[in-house]
Specification:
Radius of gyration: 17 Å
Number of strands: 0
Shape: elongated
Structural class: mainly alpha
Largest sheet: none
Number of helices: 8
């Protein structure tokens, strides 16, 4: 970021990072990459990646994939879409990459999650189910 010694500059830089994070939260289903996100806040991709990791503890890509998996979990619990349909609905372009990242984060492949979760959250309000089933990256 600009200067670690200048608190005002640090606050401005953190605000830019928050804008990037908010954009990923809003546009998770869109084709996003670090270069496009960095251009949006006038940073280089490498600089954005380093500073995002320093501020949030994970890379922009990891954050975006966590958001996509989180949304995918909700769609899979509904049970009316196939794993492939969910993959594309959350913005992933590759079923293989989606399944790999989902399995890394959740511990089971999306198809197994779908089977297990279909009845597990029945009767629970969606806002509570979202909190209880939120993926946690270690």
């Amino acid at each position: 970021m600009s200067s670690r010694a200048d608190p005002a500059a640090r606050l401005r830089d953190l605000a830019l990072l928050r804008r990037v994070r908010d954009r990923m939260d809003r546009e998770y289903a869109q084709p996003l990459n670090v270069e496009a996100l960095a251009r949006g806040v006038n940073m280089s991709a490498g600089h954005l990646s380093r500073e995002f990791r320093a501020a949030y503890g994970e890379s922009p890509y990891a954050y975006l994939m966590t958001r996509r998996v989180e949304r995918a979990m909700a769609l899979l619990r509904r049970g009316d879409l196939s794993v492939t349909e969910v993959c594309f609905a959350v913005g992933c372009a590759s079923l293989g990459t989606f399944s790999t990242r989902f399995t890394e984060l959740i511990g089971v492949p999306p198809s197994v999650y779908r089977q297990r979760a279909a009845g597990a959250t029945a009767g629970i309000p969606s806002c509570v189910a979202k909190q209880v089933t939120r993926p946690i990256r270690s």
